[in-house]
Fold this protein.
Amino acid sequence: MAAISKSERPKLQIPLQPMDYILEVLAMLGLIFLFGSSAFYYRQLPDQIPTHFGLSGAPDGYGSKTTLWLLPVIGLLIYSFMTVINRRPEGFNYLVKITPENAERQYTMATRMIRRLKAFVLLLFAYLVWRTIGIANGDAESLQGWLLPVVLVVTLGTTFFYISQAATKK
């Protein structure tokens, strides 16, 4: 079981499993909601909307309502980038040496981690746009206090789960 160089790694088509389809649909729904809600509510927004939130979730920065489009555009870029790189798992960096015997398993775990993070980021952005619209229209006062801990737990948890699985399943 000799390790092979990055350029010699097998180029495999990783079959999507049901969870992969669910994650892709969630990411796409997040992206659709980002653009759809921004377009639907844009005319109803005041000229100044919250653009930054402090640790407590209260707005501490305001700007033009055109800044509402920033998260949808960034979301589209993230979605596109993560989708494209996920098609070439042989180019990723791995914790273990990739061999013909472990390539499919390692590629599957890595691409699934990227899908999880992509779906989470897009759903997070959708939530932030939704709450920004609500706060700007006076329907809410701040983001929820649980948001920052959830973001930390999900992103770090996803990453550490992948690392522990990848390192133990060579």
Observations:
- Residues 8 and 90 are 9 Å apart (CA to CA).
- The chain has a mean pLDDT of 92.
